Amino acid sequence: MRAPIGNFDNARPAAELLDQLAAPVAAAVRDWEGPVPVDQLLHVDTEAEKADTAVFLETYGQDLLETSANCVVVAAKQGGVRTLAGCVVLSSCRVDVNGAVRRGLGARTVSFAPHQTAVGETGMEYGGITPIGLPAGWPLLLDAEVAALPWVLIGSGSRRGKLIVPGKALATLPGAEIVEGLGVRG
After folding, report:
1. CA 110 to CA 103: how far, in whole Å?
2. Which one of 6, 10, 118, 126 has the largest count of C-beta atoms within 10 Å of its C-beta?
3. With contact defined as beta carbons under 8 Å apart, do 15 and 36 qualify?
4. Contact 99, 181 (CB under 8 A)
5. If you compute the radius of gyration of the chain from its CA atoms, what whole number of angstroms results?
6. In order of start, what are the domains of the chain with their CATH numbers?
7. Residues 28-67: pLDDT tens digits?
8. In contact, 75 and 113? CB cutoff 8 Å
9. Among the residues of 106-178, which ranges form H helices?
10. How many CA atoms lie within 13 A of 106 on its CB side?
11. Least confident range of 51-60, 62-71, 85-94, 95-104
């Protein structure tokens, strides 16, 4: 099947390819509930060595710059308590850590989680972290532009392969909160 975005000829329902997803992502897809049917969560095969943004866009389509999103893990601190959270913004944007994220999490300080923490806590590969399958109880801040997309390309939990899902599906994930201005251009 042809994917709804990008130059992918190999889109298939993610539920048919659970063995190609990171364990927490596979579990979330297997147990999927909500208003968006699970068969609208699509998997596309990509080459890990083409995961860097410029090469990825050249290979799979320039339109993906405005239809793909990154999920980054942040560490927030308030009153000596550390909270990890996921933040999802368009790939063309950077995360407003010191503004929208700090306010959204009600934290005094926020920083990007260290690489080992992000990988260890999510059970996903660095460069493939996705909001689908984040640990239970984590806040998930979702930029309003991402939630409004008909289709968005996100990680699959590994550097090989991506998921294409309706933006509104991400808004229904556990702990999800839509935040205006979470992603900043430039």
Report:
1. 10
2. 6
3. no
4. yes
5. 15
6. 12-185 (3.90.960.10)
7. 999 999 899 999 999 999 887 887 777 888 899 988 989 9
8. yes
9. 115-122, 144-147, 167-171
10. 3
11. 51-60
